[in-house]
Design brief:
Two copies of one chain form a homodimer. The first copy, chain A, is an alpha/beta fold. Chain A has one domain: 3-Layer(aba) Sandwich (Cytidine Deaminase, domain 2), CATH 3.40.140.10. In chain A, strands 2-1-3-4-5 form a five-stranded mixed sheet. The first copy, chain A, is globular. At the A-B interface, helix 2, helix 3 and helix 4 of A face helix 2, helix 3 and helix 4 of B.
Chain lengths: ~150, ~150
């Protein structure tokens, strides 16, 4: 299935992030035609930038590439439930479908906490599909944090 | 009062944004010693970047300048109530005090909608002071949108 291979790209980005000492989360933006427009992993530590989450970097790259602040019709694959900031940017960028892996009870903003897409202040609500390859994504995170203790 | 002059800097950034054809919102980050670390206005259109809100740009610049992904003890002044994405980044950056001008019922994420700071997924909650020079900030926005109709 197409979405599996896109999530595998996102998992590759998460693994690359872990190898850089970053929390292993990866994201991929796919155009309506199925082209991978951008792929990114977390770089908050490397860039000293609290906004350098995988989702935000991938969305910013895809926007720069398409010359638009909106990614209408595009899909986002991310290995972990987006935080509230990323969820709000996903809405602002008009992402059509959000596919994510593991749930994030501690910091997530889609299915818990502020539930960004459930308020009228979210001017666009993507279709949301959770639990995609979630064991792989969760294992990456567990291994990363276990190795740092 | 110090916070008035910092908000006036933020209003100057909002005016400069309007002159560039951007929604007029401005933000300033101030260090614990009172130094202006960064000032920015919206640049979403110029940069084709849905994350290029005044608050995010100012926080990213201040983080780059201080070499840290956290701005512990710093204050943020912004002319409009932050959106959910910016509010979540303000929390992630450990901003100590948030001063804002006009309320934003349509897109705000602090005092309405997702109320980002009211959930346990916000790992840091700043002190929040609203209504600072709010008439000036609101007038800028009204004039901007009236001129575009």
């Amino acid at each position: 299935m197409i979405f599996r291979s896109h999530m595998h790209l996102a998992l590759d980005e998460a693994r690359a992030a872990a190898a850089r000492g970053e929390v292993p989360v990866g994201a991929v933006v796919v155009s309506p035609a199925g082209e991978v427009l951008a792929r990114a992993g977390n770089r908050t530590r490397e860039l000293n930038d609290p906004t350098a989450h995988a989702e935000m970097l991938a969305i910013r790259t895809a926007c720069a590439r398409t010359g638009s602040e909106r990614l209408t019709g595009c899909d986002l694959y991310v290995t972990l439930e987006p935080c509230p900031a990323c969820a709000a940017v996903i809405s602002a960028a008009r992402i059509a479908r959000l596919y994510y892996g593991a749930a994030d009870p501690k910091s997530g903003g889609v299915a818990q906490g502020p539930r960004i897409f459930s308020h009228p202040q979210a001017h666009h609500v993507p279709e949301v599909y959770d639990g995609i390859a979630s064991d792989d994504a969760a294992d990456l995170l567990k291994d990363f944090f276990a190795a740092r203790r």
